[in-house]
Design brief:
heterotrimer, A: 698 residues, alpha+beta, Calcium-transporting ATPase, cytoplasmic transduction domain A, Rossmann fold, six-stranded antiparallel sheet, 25 helices, 22 strands, elongated, C: 159 residues, mainly alpha, two-stranded antiparallel sheet, two-stranded antiparallel ribbon, 4 strands, 58% helix, 9% strand
Chain lengths: 698, 541, 159
């Protein structure tokens, strides 16, 4: 149904007919150009049958051959136009959002209304709630929620503040933002992608070039063969017909792959676009298939990136209750996911801290990157008579707090990294703490120490969740021969455990920002093709260096510039999908090439008897297909040859089925399907077409 | 006609395979050591002798060449050797040892081109037209130059795949080492064995005797054993006599027949073994299996119908003739122990296919090189199917490699088919052979196929000693030799600078799956190209 | 320019000259010296002499026209034109005619043929060639065993 609708679609039809232009074909598709030249020759013969001694068939046959030949070319251009249209549709829907709007440009502090197209990089604009962001840019000032659903499909508005990127076409949902424009008009990555879709302007990738050369080589060989065949057959007294020889040439040439090659390339970009991945260069997709090493961030790619408290571990003197109360108190002002999860865990365990009123009104100590802890501080002399209402059970911690409060001493309840807390907590059994922290690391958790003043009460185990199915996905990737490397700031033990759980091959733990780039360079020096994901400015050099760099849309402009693909959904684990797609792309090309060449065997057994048998009865043995007549043999071969192109369009657009298996197994399987299958199918297909034709033709 | 392969025939085949493979095992290891400059047996003595040669020539043996330099040195050396042979043939009347009148310029040009390229098509009758000096100093010398050129090129080619920046070697070093420490000693021993079996070796050119019935008989002789041994061992194929290895002095009996077959096969089979030593046992053995299986297929096709008895020698019979000719043509030696006219059409199809493929096992050195090109092409065509850019030896195959490989593959049908067309449109073919029939068409197609693949066997022989045939086939042998050699060395030059990886190849270039695919592709690619001509030619005879 | 040309051509020319000397001159001469000293018979063409007169080579066919002799294949039937051998069938089929011409009993002739075939088989280690008879050797055997019948040829050959 879809296909029929597409054919009816005027744009595709028009494009596919425009692409029949011989000049266009000569430049972009040598195989189809040759077929078209063949069509013109046969057409000429059809009109002027008396032109040469090598013309001796009926005019109807020539018209039929010419018709099938031009149909063959049209099938090819149609497949190209179809895949382009599909990709364009997606890009257009994205680009529509970038259409011209009025923007409030800031000039010397004043807001001036200008057309969005007149904006240049570096210009600043203010965007109010309900307005569209005029073009890609970076937030300079303000905090607001931005609705990106039209770009990414993410329904919840995304919070943006200073240094965040915003996409042209998205809508500010609340407040206002001052945005500095970063993209030139028409130079956004969507524009780059549009360029990649059009065959005429698309730079070809290495494999595509090599394949094109191979196909051209095979075509030249067959042109030589058929060209010289004309002479020899004539000298040997065979009555040869030019049109039949042209039919033989077209049948032998790799028209199937030649016709579908452009469509396959565009389809790859298209399929990525459907997954909300914008492609900036074709090389990226191809390299994705070649990836041998994937460098993955732990957070966000392998794990959800949201650590949750799962356990309270007391120091020797204390109990779980104690730790829970202290951790609850320390997290009371913590609005992060981690903080909330500590309170949730405590409540699940029915743990409530004492002095709840004081805690609620306590001064909060914010987390900073220097101190690496956070918590609360009771202000002295601000006593509340709430003691009687306190229903929490008595524990060592509550005793301690009451005692401290009685004596009107300063109370600080803190939680933070083990190292940072050790620095400020003097009277603690350091050995015990470290040992317990290590135990937590061993299960892949992150330990948080909780203290009251200078005494550490215990540890909270925070654990990140693995992403859904990540283990299966990574196992699939491994089967195809890819090594995965996880890079994380976590300590070695934690990293190891997660790597084991997620089935990662190698871990770089306690990593510094430069480690990613170093690793990319190291792997490339071993000749490996490296893929990686990144979002921060720190990642930009590594993204630029990597063969496949997938930047997160949410990431910085620098990262997005450096990468060759951008994921609009900002889901780092999509790199696995990209790899799979890249492989599918190459596999599709290879499979159809093999199929195309395997097809030739049968074609010799249909057309050669048609050419020679009349004049040389000895060649009867070649006529293993027993086709109806020489004419029907030629026609049915050509019809098969043409029909196979549209029949394979869905395969070219969807890509051949990819199952994670060793390359050796894939090879054997595809060889059987496309090699052996490609040899047998035309025998069956041509015979069937011939039987149908014999009903129609005499 | 009833075809019968007897147990005795199978014993012959078995001895040929065992003999050539055992020699190949020894030679293969030796060649591998030469390729990577490892210690050979008697290294000290050999090294000293070689060093003397390098000193005389004035080269630095440690100086490595790029593929361009290597190819240039190869072409220049071949050119000078060819000029020498040309001079000898033209001026043989002025030279010593039973002088005969000098050859015409076009015939001398054809002969020099034909011998320097390891082709050895003969448009002359050696025993009648050449002096002993020409046969010995001219041709025997060239029979060392031609295979040493091919073997050296293969050395450089294989070095390109070994490891990054190993270098392709130095042509003069390879060339001299191959001749002095490999071809020459083996040729000497083989010549002695051939003499034991009855091959003459004398400077006497001919004697005239009276036969038992009293009629005069001229017996032509000469330094035959020394020529014959390097003729077979160096995949040359140019006979002392016009009738080549059919002549009893070149190939006196069944034993010499088998020995000569073993000699022809030994170097081509030893290359995959050298390859196995250098680039992985599995890889080398897989290629050897492809070569032997392909050879077996040719043999089966060749034996489908009975050959002879006309045109065959009684002492070889049908099987011994077909086995010799297929071995000779499959190794691009081109010697023949029977007239091609005596071969059955099926045998001719088999011989033509062997020359179309050129790599099962192919000529000394170049057979292996061509096979690697098939490996690269096969990997590229089917390799994409596993979802990775095809790799060979864990090195990516890029568009330049494919371009070069496609050219190697393209040039072959072009220089066979186009000159054949020209020969017919010009009328030269009809003039020589009369009306165009499948048989005469086969003869012309065979002439250019043999030239293009640097084979040397032919139907036409001295009847083709006309300016048209001499010049056209000479051009084809030159293009057929040096263009692919240059392209293949360029491929090696491209691979030698590539990064090697530590991971396994996406498609292992060994094991039964790859071996079968390579075998099928090798036959498919060539048969697809030439099928119509086989149909119009030998198949229709 | 001159020097770079010299650089390319000089080693090539020297290499060619050296190889001409080694492979074109020294090698064949050494093979000849070895052959002439150790294998003089083969080296000189396996010539056959009758009463001190060389009458041919046992490796080369010679034409026999007399009905008293075994006949070789016609020159153009073989590849070399000088195929000295005939098949067992061919040899046996000629026996009747020779016997008629000479009066030599058929079983004698059969024995001579079979003996020669057996010798040839042994020389080819039984497996490396089909059965064949050497025409010259057969005829020499006839001449040797029946000198009185073949006296005319002895004289002719010894002229």
């Amino acid at each position: 149904m879809d296909l029929i609708q597409n054919i009816v679609n005027g744009q595709i039809l028009r494009d596919s007919i425009l692409k029949l232009n011989p000049l266009y074909l000569a430049k972009n598709n040598a195989v189809m150009f040759t077929v078209e030249v063949g069509f013109l020759l046969v057409l000429g013969i059809a009109f002027f049958p008396g032109i040469s001694e090598f013309v001796n068939q009926t005019q109807e046959l020539y018209f039929a051959i010419a018709g099938i030949l031009i149909l063959t070319v049209w099938f090819a251009t149609f497949s190209e136009a179809l895949s382009e249209a599909q990709a364009k549709a997606k890009v257009d829907s994205l680009k529509n959002l970038e259409k011209e709007v009025l923007a409030k440009k800031l000039e010397h502090g004043n807001e001036v209304e200008v057309k969005s197209t007149s904006l240049k990089p570096g210009d600043r604009v203010r965007v109010y709630a309900g307005q569209i962001v005029p073009r890609d840019g970076m937030v300079i000032d303000g905090k607001a929620f931005v609705d990106e659903s039209m770009m990414t499909g993410e329904s919840n508005p995304v919070f943006k503040e200073k240094d965040d990127n915003v996409l042209g076409g998205t809508k500010v949902a609340s407040d206002s933002l001052v945005i500095e424009i970063t993209a030139e008009a028409g130079k956004s990555f969507l524009d780059q992608m549009v360029g990649l879709i059009e065959n005429a302007t698309r730079p070809k990738t290495q494999n595509e070039i090599a394949l094109t050369i191979l196909l051209a080589g095979l075509s030249i060989i067959f042109i030589t063969v058929v060209g010289t065949l004309l002479f020899f057959a004539n000298f040997l007294g065979y009555k040869v017909d030019i049109a039949v020889l042209i039919a033989l040439l077209v049948a032998l040439m790799p028209t199937t792959i030649g016709g579908l090659l452009p469509a396959i390339g565009v389809a790859g970009i298209n399929r990525l676009a459907r997954d909300n991945i914008v492609v900036k260069s074709g090389k990226g997709i191809e390299s994705a298939g070649d990836c041998e090493v994937l460098i993955l961030d732990k957070t966000g790619t392998i794990t959800e990136g949201t650590r949750r408290a799962i356990e309270f571990t007391p120091m020797e003197k204390f109990t779980e209750q104690d730790v829970g109360q202290a951790a609850y108190a320390a997290s009371i002002n913590d609005s992060t996911f981690e903080g909330k999860s500590i309170i949730e865990l405590a409540e699940d365990k029915n743990i409530v801290p004492p002095l709840i009123d004081q805690i609620l009104t306590a001064k909060s100590i914010e987390f900073s990157s220097e101190t690496k802890f956070s918590g609360i501080e009771f202000l002295r002399g601000k006593k509340l008579p709430a003691r009687a209402s306190d229903t929490s059970p008595r524990t060592k911690v509550s005793d301690k707090l009451y005692e401290l409060e009685e004596s009107d001493k300063e109370i600080r309840i803190l939680k933070g990294s083990v190292e940072s807390m050790l620095k400020i907590s003097a009277c603690t059994n350091e050995a015990e703490l470290k040992w317990k922290a290590q135990e937590i690391s061993k299960i892949g958790g992150t330990p948080l120490a909780v203290s009251i003043n200078d005494e550490i009460i215990g540890l909270v185990t925070l654990k990140d969740n693995l992403k859904e199915n990540i283990r299966e996905k990574l196992n699939e990737v491994r089967t195809t021969g890819i090594t995965t490397i996880m890079i994380t700031g976590d300590n070695h033990l934690t990293a190891q455990v997660i790597a084991r759980e997620a089935s990662i091959d190698e871990v770089v733990s306690e990593a510094k920002p430069t480690d990613k780039l170093n690793r990319v360079i190291l792997e490339q020096s071993k000749g490996h093709v490296v893929g990686m994901v990144g979002d921060g400015t720190n990642d930009a050099p590594a993204l630029a260096k990597a063969d496949v760099g997938l930047a997160m849309n949410r990431g910085t402009a620098a990262a997005r510039d450096a990468a060759n693909m951008i994921d609009l959904d900002s889901d780092p684990s999509k790199i696995l999908k990209v790899v799979k797609l890249g492989k599918q792309l190459l596999m599709t090309r290879g499979a159809i090439t093999t199929f195309s060449i395997a097809n030739d065997v049968a074609k010799y057994f249909t057309i050669l008897p048609a050419i020679f048998m009349k004049d040389n009865p000895r060649l009867e043995v070649l006529n293993i297909m027993q086709l109806h007549s020489p004419e029907s043999a030629v026609l049915s071969t050509l019809i098969f040859n043409a029909a196979i192109i549209p029949l394979l369009i869905p395969l070219s657009l969807k890509g051949i089925k990819f199952k994670a298996e060793s390359t050796q197994k894939i090879f054997l399987k595809n060889m059987l399907v496309y090699g052996i299958g490609g040899t047998i199918l035309p025998f069956v297909g041509i015979k069937a077409i011939d039987m149908l034709l014999s009903l129609v033709v005499r | 006609m009833e075809v019968s392969v007897t147990y005795v025939d199978l014993i012959q085949l078995l001895v040929v395979l065992l003999g050539s493979l055992s020699l190949a095992v020894i030679f293969g290891k030796y060649l591998a050591r030469m390729i990577i400059y490892e210690k050979r047996p008697l290294e000290k003595t050999l090294g000293r002798v070689e060093n003397e040669f390098y000193k005389l020539i004035g080269i630095d043996k440690y100086q490595q060449m790029t593929w361009r330099q290597y190819f240039l040195a190869l072409v220049v050396t071949n050119f000078i050797a060819a000029c020498f042979l040309f001079g000898v043939l033209v001026f043989q009347d002025l030279l010593p040892l039973s002088p005969k009148s000098g050859l015409s310029l076009d015939l001398a040009f054809h002969t020099a081109a034909s011998f320097v390229t390891n082709t050895d098509i003969q448009h002359y009758v050696g025993d009648k037209q050449l002096s002993i000096f020409s046969q010995m100093v001219g041709l025997t010398f060239m029979m060392f130059v031609a295979p040493a050129t091919g073997i050296s090129a293969a050395f450089a080619f294989i070095r390109g795949f070994i490891r990054k920046d190993f270098g392709l070697g130095n042509f003069y070093v390879d060339f001299i080492r191959v001749i002095i420490t490999f071809l020459l000693p083996v040729a000497f021993v083989s010549a002695i064995l051939l003499m034991v079996l009855g091959v003459p070796q004398t400077l006497e050119s001919s004697i005239t005797v009276q036969t038992l019935e009293g009629a005069p008989q001229t017996i032509t002789m000469g330094p035959i054993a020394s020529l014959e041994s390097i003729k077979e061992f160096g995949s040359n194929g140019g006979g002392f006599f016009g009738s080549n290895s059919a002549h009893p002095f070149e190939n006196p009996n069944g034993l010499s027949n088998i020995f000569e077959i073993i000699l022809m096969l030994s170097i081509p089979f030893s290359f995959p073994i050298a390859y196995a030593h250098l680039l992985g046992k599995g890889r080398g053995v897989s290629i050897l299996v492809v070569m032997i299986t392909g050879f077996g297929i040719l043999l089966i096709v060749g034996l489908l119908t009975q050959s002879g008895p006309a045109g065959l020698e009684t002492r070889f019979g049908s099987f011994g003739s077909v086995l010799f000719n297929i071995s000779s043509i499959a190794t691009n030696t081109g010697a023949a122990n029977s007239a091609l006219i005596g071969m059955s059409p099926d045998a001719i199809i088999s011989l033509l296919v062997a020359m179309f493929i050129q790599a099962i096992p192919g000529a000394d050195g170049t057979g292996m090189m061509t096979m690697i090109v098939y490996v690269v092409l096969t990997l590229f065509i089917v390799g994409l199917m596993v979802g990775k850019t095809p790799e060979f030896m864990s090195m990516k195959i890029n568009s330049r490699d494919i371009k070069l490989a496609v050219f190697v593959f393209l040039i072959h049908p072009a220089i066979i088919l186009i000159p054949t067309v020209i020969a017919y449109t010009n009328g030269d073919a009809q003039q020589l052979l009369g009306s165009t029939t499948p048989m005469t068409f086969t003869q012309v197609l065979y002439e250019y196929t043999s030239s293009a693949s640097n084979n040397g066997s032919d139907y036409l022989g001295a009847s083709a000693d006309t300016p048209f045939w001499n010049l056209s086939t000479a051009l084809v042998v030159i293009v057929g030799r040096y263009v692919p050699l240059g392209l293949m060395l360029a491929i090696a030059g491209s691979f030698t600078i590539k990064d090697r990886k530590e991971v396994v190849e996406p498609i292992r270039t060994q094991g039964p799956v790859f071996t079968s695919v390579l075998l099928i592709m090798t036959f498919l690619l060539t048969v697809l190209t030439f099928f119509p001509f086989l149909i119009m030619g030998p198949f229709s005879i | 320019m001159e020097s770079s040309k010299a650089k390319i051509f000089s080693p090539a020319i020297k290499t060619v000259i050296l190889m001409i000397v080694v492979t074109g001159v020294a090698y064949p001469i050494l093979v000849m010296i070895a052959g002439q000293s150790v294998l003089p018979e083969q080296s000189n063409g396996s010539l056959v002499d009758v009463d001190g007169k060389i009458i041919g080579s046992k490796l080369l066919a010679q034409e026999f026209t007399s009905p008293k002799f075994f006949h070789s294949r016609a020159a153009s039937e073989s590849a070399s034109g000088v195929d000295p051998h005939i098949t067992k069938d061919s040899a046996l089929s000629q026996i009747q005619g020779i016997s008629d011409a000479t009066g030599i009993p058929i079983n004698h002739l059969t024995t001579i043929v079979e003996l020669d075939i057996a010798q040839n088989n042994a020389a080819n280690w039984l497996a490396f060639s089909p059965e064949y008879a050497n025409v010259l050797k057969l005829n020499l055997e006839l001449v040797k065993q029946y000198p009185e019948i073949y006296s005319e040829f002895l004289n002719a050959g010894g002229k």
